[in-house]
TrEMBL record:
Gene3D superfamilies per record: 1.10.1410.40, 3.30.460.90
Stored InterPro entries: Mab-21-like_nuc_Trfase (IPR046903), Mab-21_HhH/H2TH-like (IPR046906), MAB21L/cGLR (IPR024810)
One Gene Ontology molecular-function label: ATP binding
Record's protein name: Mab-21-like HhH/H2TH-like domain-containing protein
Domain Mab-21-like HhH/H2TH-like: 291-383
Required co-factors: Mg(2+)
Keyword Protein biosynthesis: no
Domain Mab-21-like nucleotidyltransferase: 116-280
């Protein structure tokens, strides 16, 4: 007798067939093709334009850009919004860590910068104490001292000042490159400088968040933060070689304060580089699991966006935990429906118990403090999805394809703007310079930058 999903009454086989049909016709391929054309080119263009002039500044000599987040992981789901004309507008988001690698953080008394956990800061948030006199002189313009006279002599790194300065530096660079000034809009958006580019001919907006970050060796974490590797052991999807590599990856601190914290001194622990590594390994070992995760993200986007409590990061933590519990052999096409329903049920359990732990810091509840009424609303919406998954999940295909058709496929010749393939169609004259910029050509004609101040 065929297995039945008791909540919806559908047979698992029928659910699986409906989901496979949902993914037929390319699944996420159209969106992935577009992403592969856009994101690597945008990242290369930003490095080409910003690295050299930024590194002339004495405080930016070792700055490094690291592309992270869902677009780097290959699991992005673009946001669809409808404009005044009623047509869908596609919005992509890129996360780029702007790492100040020459700020060396440690825990010992002789470290030039010391990671500290204050009593009144939430779990996963820290302050960076400037311990070395040379560091205090060098980073004085990015630091803050307590107003309490009893704490005279203390100095802490201020993330807001760094973001503000990064904004000014990028604004100065863009002011000297007309193509960038015309195509990008800058926004001071702590902990990031957001660069927004609109492709009007494609109805596409790309938001690049340049997130100020500091490098943190994992051994520098306080004792109350045991390594995620010690907590979980070796993930089943990592080979011994990959497991060795991921242990060498650094953590990062980003200038984000806790909900009721101190924005001028707090830094949030970030595992984004490790997350990228883990997601890429899952994709290599079990692409079906990645597809399942992306459908889960679609469900959130179409059904669970309001109230604005649940985010993709929450789903990522659920997904890692599910991958850790389940053997890779269980993530197959035949088990697709069962695995997706399992993820939805995991989410239901987290909302019902008001506890969604971080995969990397299990003691950190990511939905702590969220009002119970908001969680109840999400529970009710999720319950409706689970009662009829065929209706509420598989019909996402029509919404997705309709949006792509209106937003992208009506202008196929222009896709060559980001394409590095052979014999691209010539770009329109008004975008010719941007094409050269994104393809890595024409950089020799950009004006030489003065040393930034």
């Amino acid at each position: 007798m065929a297995a039945v999903d008791h909540l919806s009454g559908h047979s698992i086989i029928s659910l699986n067939e409906a989901l496979q049909n949902h993914l037929d016709g390319g699944g996420f391929q159209v969106m992935d093709d577009l992403s592969n054309q856009i994101f690597p080119s945008v990242f290369s263009a930003l490095k080409n334009c910003l690295y050299k002039p930024l590194r002339k500044h004495p405080l930016y000599r070792e700055v490094e850009f690291i592309w992270t987040g869902s677009t780097a992981e290959g699991v992005n789901i673009p946001n669809f919004e409808r404009g005044g004309d009623g047509k869908p507008h596609l919005e992509f988001e890129m996360d780029i860590l702007c790492v100040f690698r020459d700020i060396k953080i440690g825990r010992s008394a002789d470290s030039p910068a010391i990671l500290m956990k204050q009593e009144d800061t939430s779990q996963g948030y820290f302050v960076v104490f400037l311990n070395d006199q040379e560091y205090r002189k060098r980073w004085a313009q990015f630091s803050i001292a307590p107003s309490d006279p009893k704490r005279k002599g203390e100095m802490y790194l201020n993330p807001l000042l760094i973001v503000e300065d990064l904004y000014k530096q990028i604004e100065h660079i863009f002011g000297q490159i007309p193509l960038l000034r015309e195509r990008f809009q800058l926004e001071f958006n702590p902990p990031a400088v957001t660069l927004t580019m609109s492709l009007d001919f494609q109805k596409i907006t790309i938001n690049c968040d340049m997130v100020v970050a500091l490098e943190l060796p994992s051994v520098c974490l306080p004792k109350e933060y045991p390594s995620w590797i010690k907590v979980h052991g070796q993930p089943s999807w990592l080979s011994d070689e990959s497991f060795g590599k991921v242990q060498q990856e650094h953590l990062h601190l980003v200038g984000k304060c806790s909900p009721k914290g101190q924005p001028k001194v707090e830094w949030r622990l970030s595992f984004s580089v490790i997350e990228l590594f883990l997601m890429q390994e899952i994709a290599l070992q079990c692409p079906t699991a990645i597809t399942c995760y992306r459908v889960l993200k679609q469900v959130r986007f179409w059904h669970l966006k309001c109230p604005d409590i649940l985010h993709s990061y929450h789903l990522k933590m659920l997904f890692y935990q599910a991958c850790h519990r389940s053997p890779l052999t269980s993530w197959t096409d035949d088990n697709f429906a069962a695995n997706l329903l399992g993820l939805l049920d995991d989410l239901f359990h987290c909302l019902a118990t008001q506890s969604l732990p971080s995969y990397f810091i299990p003691g950190c509840n990511l939905i702590k403090g969220v009002h119970s009424d908001f969680l109840l609303t999400l529970l009710q919406k999720l319950s409706q999805v689970r009662k009829d998954p065929i209706k509420n999940i598989t019909n996402l295909k029509d919404k997705l394809l309709s949006s792509i058709e209106h937003g992208v496929q009506r202008h196929p010749p222009q896709e060559s703007l980001f394409c590095s393939g052979t014999a691209p169609a010539p770009p329109t004259p008004s975008l010719n310079g941007l094409f050269l910029l994104f393809s890595g050509r024409g950089m020799e004609r950009l004006p030489e930058q003065n040393n930034l101040s």
